[in-house]
Amino acid sequence: MQTNVLLRNVGVADSYQIETYVQQGGYQALAKVLEEGQPSKVKEVVLNSGLRGRGGAGFPTGRKWMFLPKGVYPRYLVCNADEGEPGTFKDRVLMEHDPHGVIEGIIVSSYACEVEHAFIYIRGEYNLGYQRLRNAIDQAYAAGFLGKNIRGSGYDLELSLIQGAGAYICGEETALLSSLEGKRGHPKLKPPFPAAQGLYRKPTIINNVETLFNVPFIVLNGSDWYRQWGTELSPGIKLFSVSGHVERPGVYEVPLSTPIRDLVYDICGGPKDGVPLKAIIPGGSSTRMVRADVAMEARLDYEALCDVGSDLGSGAVIVVNEKTCLVRLVARLAGFYRHESCGKCIPCREGTDWMYKILQRIERGEGRAEDLPLLLDICNNIAGKSFCPLGDAAVQPVRSSIERFGEEYEFHIREKRCMVDG
Amino acid sequence: MLTDKSKEEIRRIRGEYPDPDSALLPALYLAQKDYGGWLPEEAIDAVAEIMELAPARVGAMASFYTLFQRQPVGRHVIYVCTNVACSLLGAEHLLEYLGHKLGVEPGETSADGRFTLVEVECLGSCGTAPMMQVDEHYFENLTEEKIDRILAELA
């Protein structure tokens, strides 16, 4: 039930060195596309594979690439390695253990999009990932996989690596571009979308690490191969970061549309210490939490999770057992969004602060009867009214927990104590 | 002071990007290292000078990102994640334990100047929670005993 494509080099000795990567069959996708010499063919196979963005939004990658305006150069490609969605740690595994896989994905994708300068924006805390990528980039230049006239093909590509400095908002693509341009990480108004006008106001493709990592495999094996897994709309394989109350948390690779139950019980060993589960947050903290019994009947794909009122997001499955106070958990998350709001727009800046304060007072046993409708009202004034998706994200844990676990809030407010602590 | 080596590196990075302003993040990192782990006003001015930017722009940049310190810090900075996955596995308790041990509240530096304790958001180590970062290194699957050992080994 687990596949071993994306993670095949994890656990191999010196997996991050170029010799190992080449021995394992690395840089063959690059050789293939350079030999064929047809960028449009690469775009086509990625489009046909149905690969969707693995950063959280799930937008079809091939279609994003098609948005590049014809004949406008230079163009840029940015690898979004600012993995910051709470619960998510899959890109870190790829960058630390298989940095050449990330780089080959970037080169092949840049070739497809006719890009001659690509960038990796990695979060500042990922020091080991940064060092591994730095080393791998130097090796790739030395081996002639990067730089001028790559492998005698006439194709040039520069690859720059830059570290963020601790700002969740920079995972949002336009905020990332601001940061990369040497500014505060404020999101920009869309349209124009980055594909039309992005980095330095030039056409720019921004893809997540895992998304780009899939590309060489698709190029080598074809779109039908990729579609042997998953569903028509959610094809392929996906990395899941599993955390919280399970026996064996970690990063696992499975086909899309795998039942959540299989991931949590069979692969991760089930609930930690056998304590029954209460909730699942299936796609990172910005996706709606679901009652565990409902989640266990769902499958891990974009559509199936939508059907149970949540999202696949970044594939960060956070498992929560019944000994957990959800009011406390949601208050903690509200604190996160409050801290990470960039302050550019009022609904998000003020709304996240109010939500945090109200949740704190409920948690302290000072909640008021009108607090739940008030929280929902604030949610309604943030969602869809904020400048960028951070506001919408901040609302998800609050609204979904009130709707699905309202009794915990009511108990807190009425009894002035937690239902779980007794 | 910004070292000559850092200045040279900043100039090189300015040339690497289509717009030299892109070197601002790396420049601030280099300055922070040169100035003992934080960015005093003098460091902001030095970066502004070499980046050919207004000091206000550089200062605004430094204050936006949490990894840039605007106050002096201890010899080691301890970042403790208390976000959702770490919290589910007892991170708040470990933060309290550390605070008690060092005699500080989060955000403060120990009296002997060795450690600054900081509470932070998710560091992407959720499968090995609870965790902390000390300077540039991650320490995972923490327990009280493990924290004792790690701190004892740091000068």
The gist of it:
The complex is a heterodimer of chains A (about 425) and B (about 160). With about 425 residues, chain A is α/β, with parallel strands linked by helices. Chain A folds into three domains: about 20-225, Rossmann fold, CATH 3.40.50.11540; about 235-320, Ubiquitin-like (UB roll) (Roll); about 325-420, de novo design (two linked rop proteins).
Low-confidence stretches of chain B: none
Low-confidence stretches of chain A: none
CATH architecture of the largest domain in chain B: 3-Layer(aba) Sandwich
Oligomer kind: heterodimer
Q: Rg of chain A to the nearest angstrom? A: 22 Å
Biggest sheet character of chain A: 5 strands, mixed
- What's the CATH class label of the largest domain in chain B? Alpha Beta
| Strands side by side in the biggest sheet of chain B | 2-1-3-4
In round numbers, the mean pLDDT of chain B is 97
CATH homologous superfamily heading of the largest domain in chain A: NADH-ubiquinone oxidoreductase 51kDa subunit
Task: Provide the CATH topology of the largest domain in chain B.
Answer: Glutaredoxin
CATH topology of the largest domain in chain A: Rossmann fold
Molecular shape of chain B: elongated
Strand order within the widest beta sheet of chain A: 6-5-9-7-8
What's the level 1 CATH class of the largest domain in chain A? Answer: Alpha Beta
- Tertiary shape of chain A: globular
β-strand number of chain A:
9
The residue fraction in helices of chain A comes out at 40-55%
Discrete helix count of chain A: 18
